[in-house]
Write a structure and sequence with these properties.
The chain is of the alpha/beta class and 246 residues long. Helix content is 24%, strand content 23%. The structure holds uridine-5'-diphosphate-glucuronic acid and manganese (II) ion. The site of uridine-5'-diphosphate-glucuronic acid has 20 residues, from strand 1. This is Galactosylgalactosylxylosylprotein 3-beta-glucuronosyltransferase.
Length: 246
């Protein structure tokens, strides 16, 4: 199956660095299609050039987050992930239930992904799950597995979540995406940290989840976050004689 990685991304000083690192990972994965969705009113030159040179099959989308949703404490990238989902459904609309084999994964632009992670998710039949490192106020969060089934969640944060899992902790088969055409990320009523649960509730149940990474005992992806860059010494006048893309 082809792996479809949906990556929301937005303009900021570290964007090109993040996307360069992510491209260097994804390029090494066979049969991967990168769906990069800019949080912007138009496709940027920076991202267009980067994708053109990334050396992997890709699709470049864009949709701006409405201003009222750009606030601390509100979920991020809702519209961008939905644009990726809509593109996938549109592209496979002639499948009529006989979808080409595919697996969807939400790959934020700042996380760290091992190559083994992609081997694991490729065998997803419906929805698969695995641990995520450096998240939830702990070294890791993970689905707790007994007799091959997810029975609970090891988490330090909002243990009341129906699926106590980060966006980087699951993959969904294309078939499931196509047979649940209304499953999307919702703004209304979605509290911080509930996006994953709200989405997964629409397409699966905890009993149905397929544990990966040795029954969820290995960390193959890390929820790394990049430090905000210090630009305190950027010149206000006497700018550099060339304008360099960073
Ligand atoms: C956590 C989760 O890991 C994310 O999957 C979830 O979207 C996010 O919380 C949330 O609060 O909604 P966190 O590291 O806090 O992640 O979020 P970011 O990495 O800053 O953003 C997630 C993705 O959305 C990134 O790919 C980022 O580039 C993108 N993003 C962020 C936008 O497209 N627009 C924005 O305004 C902010
Ligand atoms: Mn992040």
């Amino acid at each position: 199956p082809t792996i479809y990685a949906i990556t929301p991304t937005y303009s900021r000083p570290v964007q090109k660095a993040e996307l360069t690192r992510l491209a260097n990972t994804l390029r090494q994965v066979a049969q991967l299609h990168w769906i990069l969705v800019e949080d912007a009113a138009a496709r940027s030159e920076l991202v267009s050039r980067l994708l053109a040179r990334a050396g992997l099959p890709s699709t470049h989308l864009h949709v701006p987050t409405p201003r009222r949703y750009k606030r601390p404490g509100l979920p991020r990238a809702t519209e961008q992930r939905n644009a990726g989902l809509a593109w996938l459904r549109q592209r496979h609309r002639h499948g009529h239930g006989r979808a080409q084999p595919g697996v969807l994964f939400f790959a934020d632009d700042d996380n760290t992904y091992s190559l083994e992670l992609f081997q694991e998710m490729r065998t997803t039949r419906k929805v698969s799950v695995w641990p995520v490192g450096l998240v939830g106020g702990r070294r890791y969060e993970r689905p707790v597995v007994e007799n091959g089934k997810v029975v609970s969640w090891y988490t330090g944060w909002r243990a009341d979540r129906p699926f106590a899992i980060d966006m980087a902790g699951f993959a969904v088969s294309l078939q499931v995406i196509l047979s649940n055409p209304k499953a999307v990320f919702k703004r209304r009523g979605s509290q911080p940290g509930m996006q994953e649960s709200d989405f997964l509730k629409q397409i699966t149940t905890v009993e149905e989840l397929e544990p990966k990474a040795s029954n969820c005992t290995k960390v193959l992806v890390w929820h790394t976050r990049t430090e905000k860059v210090n630009l305190a010494n950027e010149p206000k006048y006497r700018l550099d004689t060339v304008n360099i893309e960073v």
